[in-house]
Amino acid sequence: MTPLLRRALRLEHLTVAWNVMEVFVTVALGIAAGSLALIAFGLDSCVEIFASVVVLWHLRGEGTDLRTRRAMRYVALAFFLLAVVLVAGAIHGLVVGNKADDSPLGIAYLAVTVLVMFTLSWRKRVVSRSLANHPLEHEARITFLDGVLATGILLALVANAALGWWWADPVAAMVVAIAAIPEGIDALQDSRGVDPSGPPG
User: Fold this and answer.
1) 21-49 pLDDT per residue, tens
2) Does residue 36 contact residue 174 with C-beta atoms inside 8 Å?
3) DSSP string computed for 13-56
């Protein structure tokens, strides 16, 4: 196993570990504050865990054309699942008009999450290009969208606390959902047309 491949595996393991923690932390904070945005963010983490597990499966395999195409389709599915989860949460939040309590802990945790997600996304993009690994490159985009979503919800929580803009978090979730759809389509198209080069076996 090459040092570059070990780095890719390490980045994915870190992503899985952070997102597993994120599920429990954000859902708990969301329930405590009555924030649908935080709860939805925790559910979104489950989607990223799925995408990371797919990439780990691909990285540990033989890197064949068939395996790469399957991984790309699974990553595309993760994008679409992310969009469905976020749209459902956003619509529910807007219809119900849920007004969450202030969540200083949620704000602090999301601020750290933004830094972690954008750093992981950047490192995975660099490694994926060196490996010419398409599933890893697309999964890095999911991590980036997770960072964008964390930023949006962070701003929404601050706006809710400072200005009472309860509608800001479902709107932020909807924007990220819309961005996830073309990413999923792009990954699906790559799964049909790319001539992938996987990691060394």
Assistant:
1) 999 998 898 888 777 778 777 877 888 88
2) no
3) HHHHHHHHHHHHHHHHHHHHHT-HHHHHHHHHHHHHHHHHHHHH
Q: Where are the domains of the chain?
A: 3-193
Burial of residue 91 (number of CB atoms within 10 Å: 0-12, 13-18, 19+): middle
Tokens of 36: 């649908």
Which tens digits make up the pLDDT trace of 68-117? Answer: 788 888 888 888 888 888 888 788 878 877 666 667 888 899 999 999 99
**How many CA atoms within 13 Å lie on the side-chain side of 155?**
10
Pick the CATH number of 3-193 from 1.20.1250.20, 3.40.50.2300, 1.20.1290.10, 1.20.1510.10: 1.20.1510.10
